[in-house]
Amino acid sequence: MISDRQNIQVSVAIVGGGLSGMSAAWELYQAGIDSLVVLEANDRIGGRTFNQLHPKIGYVEMGGTWVGRTQTAVLDLARQLGVATKQGKVDGATIYGYQGIWTMHEDNPSESATPAQKDFAQVMAKFEQLSQNVPLDAPWNTPNAETLDSISAGEWIDRNTETIEARAWMAGSIRQGIAGDPHQVSMLFVLYFMANAGFFDLRETAEDYRLVGGSHSLTLKIAEHLGDRVWLNTRVREISHGDRVRLVTKRGVIQADYAIVAMMPKDAGKIHFDPPLPAIHQQLISEWQQMSWIKFFCLYPRPLWWGKAASGHYYSMDTEAEVFDVSPDDGSYGLLIGFFEPKYSNLSEVERRKCAIQTVTDMFGAGAAPEEYFEIDYTQQSWTSGCVAALPPGLLTQAGAALNEPVGRIYWAGTERSTRWINYMDGAVRSGQHAARQILEQLI
Ligand SMILES: Cc1cc2nc3c(=O)[nH]c(=O)nc-3n(C[C@H](O)[C@H](O)[C@H](O)COP(=O)(O)OP(=O)(O)OC[C@H]3O[C@@H](n4cnc5c(N)ncnc54)[C@H](O)[C@@H]3O)c2cc1C
C-alpha cells in the first residue's frame, strides 16, 4: 500500500515503461522537463526487452535482441547511455527447409536453378518493387492502397507464384517478420512493414549487432537517471482528459498537463478513456492484431554443431520455427535461440521442449540433449498482448491516419506507431522520441 504518492501533479505522465516510454521520458528529461512520471504496470521496466539472469552464462535476453546498422535511433541511444555493441550477425545466410529439404535462396538464380528458386526470386522482386512505392509517413497514400489493403498478403502470394515451394518460401519469409499467417494480414500492411524495415533489402539488415549487457540495459540506464520518477507496479486503469489529463492507478490519481500512452495499441485498448476516444482511434486499437512467438533457448556445454552446420540461421516452413546460433566466439558454451509460432502455445512445455530439440537437431545436428531448455510464451504475459503487430485487411487505409494523431492532450508512442522500423526496438525509440518532441513543441 503506497499512500505517499497519491494525487500528484506533473507536467507529463508517461504510461508504459518499455523502450518507447522510457525513450520519451529520457528525451523530455534531457530537454529540461523534470516534472514527469513513468507509470509501469509490471514489476520491472523494459517491456518487451528484458534480461533473465542465468547462473552459467550471466543473462539471456527474453525479448528484443538484435540491432541493425541502419537502426540509428537505438544505436545513438545506446552510445549516449554508454551501452556498447558487439557483433550480432550469425554465420552464413538463412537456410530454408521445406518438406525436409534445406535450401539457400539466391537473389539472382542461375540458369540451372530450380523452377522454385526462379519463381521465388521473381515473386520477391515483385514484392520489393511494390514495397518501394509505399510512403513511410502515409502508407494509406500508396498507389492502389485500397486494393492492396483489401487482400491479405497470403492471397497476393498465392496469385503471384507458380510453384508450391516458392509459395511456401515467400509465406515463410513473411511469417518470420510478422510471427503469423500471411493470410490474416493486409498486403498493404506487409508492404509497409517491409519498406519501413528494409526487410528484404540485403543492404539493410536487422541483426548486425547486439548490445553488451543486453537490450534491457537501455531502459535500466535511463531508469537510473530518472530515479523515483519511475513507478513500477502501477497500472493505469483509466484516463480522463480535457483541460488536463487525469490518470487513475491503484497508487492514486496523477494529474498531468500531457500524457504519452506508450504501448501496443491493443494494450491501450484495456485502458478506459473518458470521454471515449474518437471512433477512428477506437477502431485502430480494437482491430489491431498482435502476433506472438514463443522464444526458446537450448543451451549446450559447447557449440557441438560448429564445423558441421551449414549456417547459423535456419527457418523451417514445415515446423514454422526459426533458430539462430548465438554461441560466444570463444565457444565456451553453445546457445541456440529459436522462435515458435503461437499455435505451439497449445502444447505443453514438455511437448514444446521435445519439438524444440527435434527442430535444432534437424537444423544443426545439435544433439538431442541440451544441458538446458527454457522459453517464454508471449501469449501468456500479463501486460503485453504479444510480440509484434500486424494489421488485418482494411484497417490501414480506414484508420491508419490516426496512428500518430494526438487526442487532445494524449499523445501516442510504442514501436507500432513508428514510421521507421515498426515492430523493432528502433521503432520503439523513435516513436517515444517523436511523442516527446510533439509535447516539447507545446511546452517550450
Ligand atoms: C520475443 C521477442 C523478440 C524480439 N526480437 C527483437 C530483435 O531482435 N530486435 C528488435 O529490434 N526488436 C525485437 N523485438 C521487438 C522489440 O522488443 C519491441 O519492438 C520493443 O521492445 C517494443 O517496445 P515498446 O516500448 O514499444 O513496447 P513494450 O515493450 O510492449 O512496452 C509497453 C509497456 O507498457 C506497459 N503497460 C501496458 N499496459 C499498461 C498500463 N495499463 N499501465 C501502465 N503500463 C502498462 C507494459 O508492461 C510494457 O512495459 C522482439 C520482441 C519480442 C517479444
Overview of the molecule:
Belongs to the flavin monoamine oxidase family. One of its GO terms (molecular function) is oxidoreductase activity. With 444 residues, this protein is an alpha/beta fold. It has a domain at 8-48 and 214-277 and 407-443: 3-Layer(bba) Sandwich (FAD/NAD(P)-binding domain), CATH 3.50.50. The protein contains 13 helices and 22 strands. It has helices at residues 19-30, 72-81, 115-131, 145-150, 153-160, 164-178, 187-197, 216-226, 265-268, 279-287, 349-364, 395-399, 425-443, and strands spanning 8-15, 36-39, 51-54, 58-61, 66-67, 85-87, 95-98, 101-104, 209-211, 230-231, 236-241, 245-249, 252-262, 272-274, 289-291, 294-300, 313-316, 321-325, 334-340, 372-377, 388-390, 410-413. Strands 1, 2, 10, 11, 12, 13, 14 and 22 form an 8-stranded mixed beta sheet that branches. A 7-stranded mixed beta sheet has the order 8-7-17-18-19-16-20, sandwiched between helices. β11 (236-241) and β12 (245-249) form a beta hairpin. α1 packs parallel to α8 (216-226), α3 (115-131) packs across α6 (164-178) and α3 packs across α7. The relative contact order is 0.20. Bound molecules: flavin-adenine dinucleotide. Flavin-adenine dinucleotide (FAD) binds at residues 15-21, 39-42, 47-49, 63-66, 235-236, 262-264, 267, 271, 293, 295, 378, 383-384, 387, 414-415, 423-426, 428.
